[in-house]
Amino acid sequence: MLEYREDSEAISLNPMTRKKKQGYGDAAYWEHRYQHDVVPFEWYQKYDGLRDLLKKYIHATADILMLGCGNSALSEDMAKDGYYDITNVDISPTVIKAMKMKHLDLPQLKWVCADARSMTIFKSGSLDAVIDKGTLDALMCGDEATENVNSMVSEVFRLLRPGGVYLMVSYGEPTTRMPYLGPSRRAWSTSLHLLPRPTAAQEKYSWVRTLEPVPVGEDGILPPHLHGKDADFHYVYACVKEKLNVLLDGQ
Ligand SMILES: C[S@@+](CC[C@H](N)C(=O)[O-])C[C@H]1O[C@@H](n2cnc3c(N)ncnc32)[C@H](O)[C@@H]1O
Fold first, then answer.
1. Cα(10) to centroid(ligand 1), Å
2. Average pLDDT over residues 72-79
3. Where does the record place the Methyltransferase type domain (predicted)?
């Protein structure tokens, strides 16, 4: 049974505390963590919270990459809900080995140890969807944050087929993420969805329609009624790779 420790630790990934949390950007931090803590940890949201958005953007027959899978139950839950083909990538050999052993009964799931910043083992344009829950956020920590995130997003873009989607689940507000994900950076269109955190007072957010994207510009500034210090959201960025420009680029 998965232990669900709601995102108290994820909240501490806040850039304000970045200095203390630089380890999140380091492969050695994650390898050490997975060697010494075998209790599964689900970041931000469980499958239940993401299911409708995943269904909106990703067909069950899609070729999917789960980027920085950790020991999350998301891929397992998706496979049990009809998704056929999910390749799970993580930089930690320990977590990949453990997850592979744990899920021998689910042939829909493949497990690969790789660095999200350089996934040369995968062919360009070979994927319909890349899902990232907390991995870009992790790379946002550390001294080389900008280079690391740019390398990872470039790789995601390269791997997607025209029309494919990068679904990025984050605690990060759009002003901090749109500079990496905005349409001026790549030939894709970016939509933003708001998802109240599981710990949020749900009645306070009954007006949120998660499936309907909220307007957000390249600068990431939200309309006044949607931002504020007490906004208790996770943000889901859906970047859909364009078809025309991509063909012109020859990718
Ligand atoms: C915040 S955790 C999220 C884990 C999982 N996606 C979840 O939602 O529970 C970030 C994950 O990214 C992995 N990671 C960090 N840097 C990576 C990199 N350069 N390439 C691939 N995976 C990486 C870590 O090992 C860790 O499992």
1. 12
2. 98
3. 65-167
Look at ligand 1, atom 10, and give the residue with the nearest C-alpha: 135
* 106 φ/ψ angles, rounded to the nearest 5 degrees: -120, 90
- Using a 10 angstrom Cβ sphere, with 0-12 exposed, 13-18 middle and 19 or more buried, the burial of residue 173 is middle
Q: Cβ of 199: how many Cβ atoms within 10 Å? A: 11
Instruction: State which ligand 1 atom lies nearest to the alpha carbon of 132.
Output: 6
Is the pTM higher than 0.85? The answer reads: yes
CB proximity list for 38: less than 8 A, separation 6 or greater: 71, 98
The domains found in the chain, sorted by start residue, are 8-249 (3.40.50.150)
| Pairing mode, strands 127-133 and 109-113 | unpaired
**What confidence tens digit (pLDDT) does each residue in 152-191 have?**
999 999 999 999 999 999 999 999 999 999 888 899 999 9
pLDDT at 247: 52
Q: How far is residue 143's CA from residue 139's CA, in Å, rounded to a whole number?
A: 10
Q: What tokens were used for 196?
A: 């109240």
For tokens 């499958």, name the residue. Answer: 47
